Every structure is written in C-alpha cells, then in structure tokens.
C-alpha cells in the first residue's frame, strides 16, 4: 500500500464520524455505523479450521420478512451493511436482499464471499447494480495452484470484465489469511490475484484454537516481511492493505466492548452477537431478534447490559484481534485523552483517508 492510498481498516475508522463518537462518549444513544450479518450458515465449502463449521450444521438462513423488518429499523440510520456467511450468494433471495438493503437506505453494501457463485448471471447482475464492494476470500493456494483457486481467478477476471463493460462502480477485493508457514506463497498468489483483476488485496491473520475457550492468532513470524517482498514485486499502484495494528503484539485494553455499539453482528439464527469473531457462541449472545425486533432493539436493557459486561479481561475472543476489540481499545484511548482534557484533540486521530468509510 502506497502512502496516498486510502485504508480499508484501521482502529481509528470507528471514529470517522466525529459527531457519532462524541455522542457516544457523552453517553448518548447512537445507531451503528455498520451492521454485519450472516445471510445464511450454508456454504459451498467445508474448510478445515473453519470456526463456524459446527454452527453450519443447522443450515439456517435469514428470510425476507425478517430482513425487511431489520432493514426498516436500521436502514435509515445505519449507512453500511456487510453480507457474510456461510456463503451469502448461495441464498436464492440474495439478489432481492441486496436490492432491499439499498431501498431501505443503506449507502454502502459489501459482500464477503468465497467467489463460488460470482459467475452466475443473477448474482453478477445484483453485484453490479447494488453492491459497493465484494471481498473474495482466496482459498486452496497454500502449497500449489489448486483447481479451485485457478477457477476462482477466472471468475474474478470475468466479473472484472463485466465491471469495465458496464461502467459499474463495484470494486473487487481479495483477502488472504496469513501465518508463518504460508509466507512462501504470498508473492505468487498475490501477483496472480492482481493479474485476474482485483482492485485491492487485504491480508489478515489466520486464527486457531476456535474449539477452545481462547482462540488466538497463529504464528505470524515473517508475515510482514513476506508482504513487503510482494509489494516490491507488484506495480507501484497495486493496492495492498495490511492492518498493522492487528499484527501488533501490544495488548488491548477496554473497560467495555465499545466497538460493538458501532459495528453490530447478527447471525443467520437472528441473534445479535458481540462481534463477528464471537458469532454462534452462546456466551456472546446479546439479544435474540426473533423475539424482539422493535424500533428500539439496540437499546434493549438486556443488550446494553451484556455489552457493558464485556471488557479486556473477560472477552475471551480478544486474542484474535478482530474489529470490535480493536475498536474498543481505540475508543478507550479516546476516553483517556478526553479525561485528560486535551482540548478536543482526541477527535483528530481519525485523520486517515478510508475506503468505504461506512463499512468499518
């Protein structure tokens, strides 16, 4: 990533809306900046190490009546939405869902996908017309170029060609999970992904021990050095994103899970969870929206009490360094600066330029 390119992620992105962060710090009610939801638990793949494999046995899918009600509550006030899964494009009503999201007021729509269905005409049409960005998770590249990986690149190339022909504003990103024993493949895989037509490449740490109480990042030794070699090999304008804060060994500290007021996660079971990293964990449930989805569900006492109970000493997913704890640590630092009376300078920290500012 060059100095003049906008960032996809940094902890300070949570405070990009100064009025919202100030309202929160003053104890006021806020709507989230982003809602991320699993449209379905179903997936076209069954990957080793997937943290949600057990949950997917239920194969739950959010239906249009539920989505219509949820979008009616959040759409006018929450500008960003992310569809994840499972594989959201596997859902028959995927095209109707992204159209509904736009109609209900969401400004930026992102899709996280494994790329399996991006060659299908009905999926392509929905993406080109309604979606801001699709982030394709690259799989099966670790030891060699598998058939699945090669086919994914071909599908990316086809979608990029349609973008150019149609004039669509859709952007294609790709993500790669990193750990020490995969660094020898970064260069080859990254260059092939750019050659296929991705607009940007995002790296993030692979996490392990999901079946234990405290999941953590896998060994990331040598990862940043390997990414630097890739950056030297690709054209200077290649858009590569490395969330350095997620690779930092600096511990996170927060007195409550501030970040989950700004980014909310809803599972395919209709339950609001503490974060994307903790979805489908019983001890991370905040509120069952199948039982309560009124206009004020965000401020339901049970939800607020649960959020306020989590802190850096008891949030057992903290070792993965996903977005909610990263945001929470950043907001805690803002609170400390504010308490020190730094003449409002605590709100100038989010000065970086961000891509997709409402997808945090």
Automatic annotation (TrEMBL):
One of its GO terms (molecular function) is metal ion binding. Keywords: Iron, Iron-sulfur, Metal-binding, S-adenosyl-L-methionine. It comes from the Bacteria. The keyword Metal-binding applies. InterPro entries: Aldolase_TIM, Radical_SAM_PqqE_MftC-like, rSAM, rSAM_sf. PANTHER family: PQQA PEPTIDE CYCLASE, RADICAL SAM DOMAIN PROTEIN. This is Radical SAM superfamily enzyme, MoaA/NifB/PqqE/SkfB family.
């Amino acid at each position: 990533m060059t100095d003049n390119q906008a960032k996809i992620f940094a902890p300070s992105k949570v405070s990009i809306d100064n009025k919202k962060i100030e309202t929160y710090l003053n104890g006021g009610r806020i709507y989230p900046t982003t809602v991320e939801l699993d449209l379905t638990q179903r997936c076209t793949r069954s990957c080793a190490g997937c943290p949600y494999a057990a949950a997917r046995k239920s194969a739950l899918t959010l239906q249009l009546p539920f989505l219509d009600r949820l979008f009616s509550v959040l759409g006018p006030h929450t500008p960003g939405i992310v569809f994840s899964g499972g594989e959201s494009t596997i859902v028959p009503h995927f095209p109707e869902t992204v159209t509904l999201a736009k109609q209900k007021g969401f400004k930026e729509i992102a899709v996280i996908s494994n790329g399996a269905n991006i060659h299908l005409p009905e999926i392509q049409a929905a993406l080109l017309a309604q979606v801001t960005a699709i982030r394709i998770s690259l799989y099966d590249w670790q030891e060699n170029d598998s058939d699945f990986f090669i086919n994914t690149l071909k599908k990316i190339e086809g979608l990029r060609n349609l973008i150019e022909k149609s004039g669509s504003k859709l952007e294609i990103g790709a993500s790669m999970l990193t750990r020490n024993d995969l660094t020898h493949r970064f260069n080859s895989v990254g260059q092939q992904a750019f050659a296929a037509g991705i607009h940007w490449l995002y790296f993030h740490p692979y996490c392990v021990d999901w079946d234990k109480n405290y999941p953590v990042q896998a060994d990331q030794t040598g990862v940043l050095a390997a990414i630097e070699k890739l950056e030297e090999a690709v054209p200077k304008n290649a858009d590569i994103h490395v969330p350095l804060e997620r690779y930092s060994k600096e511990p996170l500290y927060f007195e409550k899970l501030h970040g989950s007021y700004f980014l909310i996660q809803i599972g395919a079971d209709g339950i609001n969870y503490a974060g994307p990293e903790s979805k489908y964990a019983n001890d991370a449930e905040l509120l069952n929206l199948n039982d309560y989805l009124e206009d004020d569900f965000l401020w339901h006492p049970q939800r607020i009490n649960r959020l306020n109970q989590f802190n850096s000493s008891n949030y057992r997913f903290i070792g993965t360094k996903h977005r909610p704890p990263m945001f929470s640590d950043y907001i805690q630092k803002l609170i400390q600066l504010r308490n020190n009376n730094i003449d409002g300078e605590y709100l100038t920290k989010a000065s970086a330029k961000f891509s997709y500012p409402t997808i945090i």
